């Protein structure tokens, strides 16, 4: 993995990231200014083809939005063979449930080709929430809905 940049890069496709983040329940209720604050904490990461983003059981510390490339999620299957449970491409995201519910990863994600992702770490999300009570309230409401039986 290579870090390409941290935060929103001038001239980058901010609109792409805004649209992708709006589809996440976690950020759907935020207004544009609040969402922009969130995006200033995102990092742009590049993964090589075949590179593992995370493994099943790893701590859920970061979630990802794919800008370019493809990744696949697998779980152990019959006789130790991997079973693909999903494939993701540009504009799709993964890892958000483990992040907000503070649970281990439910699958292994491997890049099928060179892939660039925007990533938001739990540490950065918590730092953002500590300085923005309105964002903290929106995120906590989603966590409560997701974690209640």
Describe the structure.
The chain has about 150 residues and is α+β, with helices and mostly antiparallel strands. Helix content is about 30%, strand content about 30%. It has one domain (about 1-145): Jelly Rolls, CATH 2.60.120. The protein is built from five helices and nine strands, in the order βααββββββαββαα. The strands form two sheets. It has a five-stranded antiparallel sheet. Strands 3-8-5-6 form a four-stranded antiparallel sheet, with no helix packed on it. The chain is globular and about 50 Å long. The model has no long low-confidence stretch (mean pLDDT about 85).
Summed up:
The chain has 149 residues and is α+β, with helices and mostly antiparallel strands.
CATH topology grouping: Jelly Rolls
The largest beta-sheet arranges its strands as: 1-2-9-4-7
- Report the average pLDDT across residues: 85
The secondary-structure class comes to alpha+beta
Tally of DSSP helical segments: 5
Q: What would CATH call the architecture?
A: Sandwich
Largest β-sheet summary: 5 strands, antiparallel
- Overall outline: globular
Q: What is the C-level CATH assignment?
A: Mainly Beta
Count the E strands: 9
- Classify the beta-strand content into a percent band: 25-35%
Write the element-wise H/E pattern from the N-terminal end onward: EHHEEEEEEHEEHH
